[in-house]
Write a sequence for this structure.
């Protein structure tokens, strides 16, 4: 039996995912393959490196640092999340990512990115997080506040623009059991955005504009599908049991801790049902 895991993004709401995955490590929940999006990738890789607590630790420490994630970084570098400090200095110098342990992991990890020329999702396998750090930058590159990221001759932005919840891709890959971790409470739906901003900002990339302006449709359809599959007991879903008021670029360490603790608590309450789901065969 192969177990797949889908990790939604959501900026700092991904602290919920960090809590969930730390509970997976604590309770030896084995995953064969992960498809992550944006923050789901950035925080999810710590599951494969077995670095419990790393995501919440470095985010609480650096979230308020202007060189980590800030308007200052946006104005001075073009990226609201600082490329050099957040993606290279933190994992290589300040809170070192265990790349050797990651490489030992038998869990296959895929990062969802959006090709700005085609407007379509691509799923890039992460064999070496450090050497492929630009893939992590691409999947987390929020539109309007991030520069387009180039990787292997292609141009990418936030994977959530094309596929916010890659449940279809996970099913296509043939996993027998699928766990989905969402970062928004039950019944959350996206609204149609103002169409003019994307058209003005990305006029050179019409397919990307279309992806941005129609993202809400795909997102809401994916949520409906997840809910229906959950009702049929075909997948197992973990989502915040209550709303935590926080922004995508939340800097308040107490809010980050609250979201992380909610992930811990919700997973702890769901462990028995999760083990039952993973044990039972259709």
């Amino acid at each position: 039996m192969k177990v797949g895991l889908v990790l939604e993004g959501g900026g700092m709401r991904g602290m919920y995912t960090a809590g969930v995955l730390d509970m997976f490590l604590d309770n030896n929940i084995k995953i064969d393959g992960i498809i992550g999006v944006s923050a789901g990738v950035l925080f999810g890789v710590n599951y494969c490196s077995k670095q419990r607590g790393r995501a919440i630790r470095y985010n609480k420490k650096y979230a308020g640092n202007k060189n980590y994630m800030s308007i200052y970084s946006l104005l001075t570098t073009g990226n609201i999340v600082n490329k050099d400090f957040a993606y290279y200095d933190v994992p290589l110098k300040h809170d070192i990512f265990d790349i050797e342990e990651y490489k030992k992991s038998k869990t296959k990890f895929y990062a969802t990115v959006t090709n700005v020329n085609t407007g379509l999702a691509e799923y890039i396998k992460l064999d070496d997080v450090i050497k492929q750090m630009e893939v992590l930058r691409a999947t987390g590159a929020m539109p309007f506040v991030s520069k387009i990221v180039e990787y292997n001759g292609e141009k990418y932005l936030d994977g959530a623009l094309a596929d916010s919840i890659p449940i279809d891709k996970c099913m296509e890959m043939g996993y027998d059991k699928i766990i989905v971790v969402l970062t928004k409470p039950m019944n959350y739906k996206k609204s149609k955005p103002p169409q003019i901003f994307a058209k003005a900002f990305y006029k050179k990339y019409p397919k990307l504009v279309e992806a941005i302006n129609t993202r809400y449709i795909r997102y809401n359809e994916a949520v409906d599908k997840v809910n229906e599959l959950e009702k049929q007991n075909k997948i197992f879903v973990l989502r915040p049991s209550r709303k935590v008021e926080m922004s995508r670029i939340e800097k308040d360490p107490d809010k980050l801790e609250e979201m992380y603790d909610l992930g811990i608590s919700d997973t702890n309450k769901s462990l028995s049902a999760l083990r039952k789901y993973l044990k039972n065969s259709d």
Summary: The longest helix spans residues 253-279.
